[in-house]
Amino acid sequence: MAENFEQHSDISAADLARLTQEAQAEATPSTAKIIWSEFKADKPAMAALIIIVGFILFVMIGALFINTPKMMETNIMGYFNQPFTADFWLGADSAGRSVAKQLIVGSRNSIGIAIGLTVISSTFGICWGLISGYFNGYIDWGMQRIYDFMMMLPMTMMIIVLVTIIPHYNSVTLTFIFSIFYWEGTSRLIRSRTLAESEKDYVAASKASGTSHWKIIFREIMPNISSLIIVDCTLSFAENIGVETGLSYLGFGLPSQTPSLGTMIANANDPNNITQYWWTWLPAALEIIILCLSISYVGQVLRRAADSSQRQGSVN
Questions:
Q1: What transmembrane ranges does the database entry give (predicted)?
Q2: CB-based contact 197:224 (threshold 8 Å)
Q3: For a designed S-S bond to 121, which of 32, 109, 164, 182 qualifies (C-beta 3.0 to 4.6 A apart)?
């Protein structure tokens, strides 16, 4: 580097600064490389990532080749058919319907609702928490009173009432109903961290230099709390799978003729199904456990990668 500077001693200060920044950029690994190195170092997390991606692709693509209305028709000849047969890989339920096909379509519905709910609720909650924590004062006070009002509402009962009064609803409608109530936890978490970040020197320097509030919030504060956002979103995704499953189990989720993981686990309400016809509910229960554990592993790796990227960015 010293020889390079001697050979180009006549270059301007601006060119020298540009060359230095380019050299630092080449030496600093990209965020994608950091994430990949973290996954290579953590074999269980790599296996969890393969399980999640592979399974989601399988159910999303596989569900396209299944005729759902025909699949949900009653087949008397297939009444509680044993699993591991040519026609019923995972057996059949009390209506003679294939458990394997229901598992594929039900997984697509449950995972699709969880993804949509995570995107909508996390996006709204992150924006709400960032704005509330940054501006503080009367704006924060007013936004927190709205938050307190939402928290006082009996969330499960409100969702059940909304589902009951809506005559015809589907997975999209159910996702928006869930999103009305499931942003509060994310907003409070992001607000508390934003309150601490807004007191730091880099925020004061940006304000003094005339940077707009929105650029400070979304270009400076939000990247610095990215590790918290990543962990919250991954854990929310695992939780949201359980949200739809729990309400469908109680009979207030998707309609009865729409398969989901919750409606399949509801077969365990019958004591005979628990002991004699275990294949009607056990595959769905195992899938939820494996997915939630895998998502947790992946979230921890993404958090470490975000922390590492932030440390390297601060050093540079």
A1: 45-66, 111-135, 155-183, 278-302
A2: yes
A3: 182
Residue 69 sits in which domain range? 34-310
Looking up tokens 């594929």 gives 104
Torsion of CA 224, 228, 232, 233, to 10 degrees: 30
| pTM for the full predicted model | 0.80
Q: In the chain, how many domains are there?
A: 1
CATH number at residue 222: 1.10.3720.10
104/202 Cα distance (integer angstroms): 49
Structure letter (DSSP) for residue 81:
P
* Mutual angle of helices 226-250 and 282-315, in 10-degree steps: 170
DSSP 288-312: HHHHHHHHHHHHHHHHHHHHHHHHH
Q: How many C-beta atoms surround the C-beta of residue 75 within 10 A?
A: 16
Instruction: Give yes or no for residue 311 having a pLDDT over 70.
Output: no
Q: Can you tell me the mean pLDDT for 185-200?
A: 90
Q: Pick left, alpha or beta for residue 74 (phi over 0 → left; psi -120 to 50 → alpha; otherwise beta).
A: beta
